[in-house]
Amino acid sequence: MSNPHISQIAEELTVSPRQVQATVKLLDEGATVPFISRYRKEMTGSLDEVAIAAIRDRIEQLRELDKRRDTVLNSIREQGKLTPGLEASIRAAGTMAALEDIYLPYKPKKRTRATIAREKGLESLATLLFEQENVDIHAEATKYMDAGKGVNTADEALAGARDIIAEWVNENAGVRAAVRQLFWDKGTYRCRVIPGKEEEAQKFKDYFEWSEPVAKAPSHRVLAMRRGEKEMFLMLDTALEEEEALTLLEKHFVRSTHPAGTQVKAAVKDAWRRLLKPSMETEIRLMTKKKADEEAIRVFADNLRQLLLSAPLGQKNVLAVDPGFRSGCKVAVLDRQGKLLHYEAIYPNEPQKQVAAAGATVRRLCEKYGIEAISIGNGTASRETETFIRGLGLPAGIQVVVVNESGASVYSASDVAREEFPDQDVTVRGAVSIGRRLVDPLAELVKIDPKSIGVGQYQHDVDQTALKGSLDDVVVSCVNAVGVEVNTASKQLLTYVSGLGPQLAQNIVDYRNTNGPFKTRSELKKVSRLGEKAFEQAAGFLRIRNAKNPLDRSAVHPESYRVVEQMAADQNCSVADLMANEGLRKGISLKKYATDTIGMPTLQDIMNELAKPGRDPREQFESFSFAEGVNTMEDLRVGMKLPGIVTNVTAFGAFVDIGVHQDGLVHVSELSNRFVSTPAEVVKVQQRVEVTVVSVDIPRKRIALSMKTNLPAGGPSPAKKKEAGKPVAEAGDLQAKLQKLKGMFR
After folding, report:
1. Helix 355-369 and helix 382-390, axial crossing angle in degrees, nearest 10
2. Domain boundary, last residue among 439, 457, 486
3. What pLDDT, in 10s, does the model give residues 726-742?
């Protein structure tokens, strides 16, 4: 990697060149982001995962730019047109757009009007006109009349010359950059409904006659308008006032009022309308789409992280209930390791109303299997089933929890579920998923495509490759932050452990099934194809709960065991004693153990881990209940204060489950009494909140909520209601630091 890249990235991310150099070296050697962040702090200066991922992504961008640069240089060199000045400009191009602008005049293209004019020998006439001297242009044009070449009149010669000038205008790199910036600064989105589709397009009603500046359009509106266009309900244009564009172009190209200057002015106008405008509109649409995608993906990734790191109930015997009406409630019994022990169906709800029989079944199962918690999905018949369960008079020690079942049906029909439960139908698999996601949300949700979990914003409209990369990063980060018990983890969970992947995860499971539980971390080296590099990357994130060596239960990396053992020896105790006795740990001077490879950051991490080995970074589980007697939208009244759980955070507000089968929206303007630029400042997915009902629209299945305190009777003021009715408030000026960084990369 060249030094300019090191310096450039360091400056962009406000870190030192040494940190960038070390990070890129580790990445190139195959180290993962979690591993570098956790176990190579001395090398990177304690960069966190966000900074390391940013360095990874930026170096990939710059390397792609380098590849394209080489292609461009080779192409122009083969044409015999590469000059030292041109090569210098190409090497100095800092973005793909700048590089493509320089390459455009040399890029192989189909026959154009300018090409045809050149074939007629009109390029020298174009050059003459472009100089804009005071000459008799018609007399000069007459010299180029040639019936054999299809130039029959002086006007035809001038028209051809203008075509060549128009292409010069279009291919001028500096002008393209200026027009592109003008589009960003003063361009406008204009959206309208396709005539005759007003009824079909009601979900896009807010955009039937809509316009706003390109620079200020938030991600969700851009994606909404594009979706309406894709579904052929809306017409969307990215417009720039012609007068603005022509003023810029004429200032650059038109230098006289002589007849030749008039010809150039006409060519400039043609270049704008026929070449530059369509080209720039396409570019701006792509660039604004990319910007919108980045913001939507960021929102999705933040939500997914919060969901994956939801508080686990922990290992309990669970009765999982997938509620329903006509088809009944599917009930699954899971042991403390999540193994399916028993399943059957009960019918406590309409139309069967077999309440007594269903109650007897639940009581019997709770007693027989020592049930400690009951997990109820929040889908159809959820509240009715919850009311039934709570009314059975079960022992007080049995927790009853309603869990978000989004994605359970996707899991139940997946290859993963069929592999786990080949002999069970989708209803049983769905119930198992509902139970397991209460015990350990992370371990269960990694089996489901994140796009099916329901915490995104236009996730099917954004760049799917970029989305997958970002979400994979989040899952990997969460899995490794929590750590994985190697003897009980599923193949899917092991797949996301640093240094593993699907094949090594399967090999670990196969080894476990053949040889029994792993007894030591070092035994992992016996797994097929799990070499030294994979062991280095993975070992610290894998736990062996009942290992003889207590460090195998912790996040201390095996490469640091020697240091811990020396600490214990110096304190005249065992490693287990050191972990159990705070007084012994306090007697350790960390500076004594610092070396060139193990510095104070790692030593401090080791001490923290010895104090709480294998600690789970997730919050403690807290029980939650919806308001009694509020089960459907018909039960809601304006002004009601209700408990709820945040299910999704978007750029325009937060969706909250209040237990009525339809999430309500807390618009960004109703999240707090203070100004809020982005909803993420106030709420996160799975957060418990108290909301006030602002309005209920049963036909459209819409519930407006507020989290403001001291609301006037009946909800917010009319002005605020009107504001909440807009397509969306400006949900923030997009978190300045991140957007500034991304702006540098365009």
Report:
1. 70
2. 439
3. 333 333 333 343 344 44
